[in-house]
Amino acid sequence: MRFMHFDLMHYELSDCTTMSTDELVLQNLVYHEQLIVQISEFDHIPPALKQQQSRLKRLKRDAVNLERQVKSLEAQTQRTKTEHEGLSSSTKRRFVANVAGAAGRKDKFEARVSEKGRCGRGPQN
């Protein structure tokens, strides 16, 4: 796009005094038409600006929503991780208790067997 230099003093003052108004208008007609064409080339700018502003507003709203989703998912992940760690340590404790308990029960069972006989019942009378 070529911009024309806008010159209010297109003609020297001496030329203007000898010409009639109609002659001046006709001589400047091409220049003014070019100005009108150049101005019309900018007609798309206001709607395009509104469209871009609307798009920017929508993108900002989407960014806020995505940030909320990320925070929610981070909290959910943290809760799940905490539950898993709790479950994991609880499972470990139960396993250790079962193993230790089984060993303890085995010792008690062997003690009872040796005391009362092979079947675990008292002496038969």
Automatic annotation (TrEMBL):
Q: Where is the composition biased (Basic and acidic residues)?
A: 105-118
Q: Which domain of life is it from?
A: Eukaryota
- Annotated region (Disordered) at 74-93, 105-125
Q: What is this protein called?
A: Uncharacterized protein
